[in-house]
Design brief:
The protein is an alpha/beta fold. 42% of the residues lie in helices and 12% in strands. A hairpin with a 6-residue loop joins strand 1 and strand 2. Helix 6 packs antiparallel against helix 7.
Length: 372
């Protein structure tokens, strides 16, 4: 049976929450016509969306003046923190959605991602993103908060659809975000969009938005992923496990289910969700496993994304591989911890992984040597 909905992806049982029919949002063209937007001037291109709120009330975009600041850190949030901590700190403005949506009718072609990276958590995607930053004229947007906000809002509103309805404002917001972030400082750059692990639950939605953009999905032995998340809990394990409403919102389970699960079971079931999401038909994604990630694989992905990586600069590439990928200062050395993580897994965690994640991971891994 084809996997077509988040409920089918996230649970094999019958106790999942069913979503209603998709409700199309307001027409983006209709919105843009009322705004009569000008082209983005060079001065406007200094201001980039750092935060986005789509919660109750009026939507709000927080803009930072990032003139002269590049996205060099492992994560989008690290660059934003650096800008806010600079002396003087980057200037900020708050607006509604209108200035952001002007990008959709600005009289110029929209910048689309050159490539999109999905992952199942703790599997080398940050390292891949860091290495792709070596490409000339490339900006890697690593887990940008504004994109997360749009996708999180989408999970709660249309949980059962695999695509955005024509004119849905959320898809338009995502397109506008990528364009504005890739059009900073008056220089149109290639953009690689690396998403957060749970974003993979909406991989079909993202694919429908950019049907021709290459996608890479990174995987890793689920035992190692699980141990990593237990040793240094990620947000979905640290916060969502004990927040049944959020777990229901993201994974489609009944609200009390996450509270009844052991930490090992919750961990394993989430990883299984991610692996099943990546197997949906029609994604045309390249599967890349952690065990396969080396400089040659980076160059293969770079070629797939149409990036211009330096041909004879193995020194810089090697330095990236020798550095802990998530250190914003780039000083902490990398240590291969695969054996340590395998040894740290107890029998309960291994049993949970075997029940909820291993089969889906192995089916996904079987695709890792196929090109998209």
């Amino acid at each position: 049976m084809a996997l077509t909905s988040r409920e089918q992806i996230c649970d094999r049982e019958s106790d999942v929450r069913r979503g209603g029919a998709p409700q199309p949002g307001p027409s983006l063209r209709a919105i843009a016509r009322t705004l009569r937007p000008p082209r983005r001037t060079l001065a406007m291109r200094r201001w980039l969306p750092a935060n986005l709120s789509l919660g109750p009330g009026r939507p709000e975009v927080t803009w930072l003046d990032l003139a002269g600041i590049k996205f060099e850190e492992p994560f989008f949030r690290d660059t934003v923190l650096r800008a806010r901590a600079s002396k003087p700190p980057a200037a900020e403005r708050k607006t509604g959605l209108q200035p952001l949506l002007r990008a959709l009718e600005g009289g110029e072609s929209l910048i689309e991602p050159s490539g999109i990276i999905f992952h199942i958590s703790r599997c080398g995607s940050t390292l891949l993103g860091n290495a792709l930053r070596l490409a000339d004229g490339c900006t890697v947007l690593s887990e940008p908060g504004p994109v997360n906000e749009v996708l999180l809002a989408d999970l709660s509103s249309v949980p059962s659809s695999s695509h955005w309805e024509h004119g849905d404002i959320r898809g338009g917001i995502l397109k506008a975000l990528v364009h504005v972030l890739g059009d900073s400082g008056g220089e149109r750059r290639q953009v690689v969009l690396k998403l957060t692990s749970w974003n993979i639950l909406l991989i079909s939605r993202v694919r429908s938005l950019w049907p021709d953009v290459p996608i890479v999905t990174m995987t890793r032995d689920p035992t190692e992923v699980a141990v990593s998340n237990l040793l240094e809990p990620s947000t979905w394990l640290k916060q969502i496990k004990n927040s049944p409403k959020e777990a229901s919102r993201i994974f489609g389970w009944h609200e009390n289910n996450s509270l009844l699960m052991s930490t090992a079971e919750f961990n394993a079931r989430v990883i299984g969700c991610y692996c099943r999401a990546a197997q949906q038909p029609g994604l045309m994604a390249r599967i890349l496993d952690y065990d396969e990630l080396d400089s040659a694989a980076v160059r293969e992905v770079g070629e797939m994304f149409g990036l211009r990586l330096p041909k004879r600069d193995e020194g810089r590439m090697g330095e990236i591989f020798r550095t802990y990928a998530k250190d914003p200062l780039g000083k902490r050395p990398f240590k291969d911890d695969r054996r340590r993580k395998q040894e740290a897994a107890d029998s309960r965690l291994r049993a949970a992984i075997e029940q909820w994640a291993s089969g889906d991971y192995l089916r996904l891994r079987a695709q890792s040597n196929r090109r998209a």
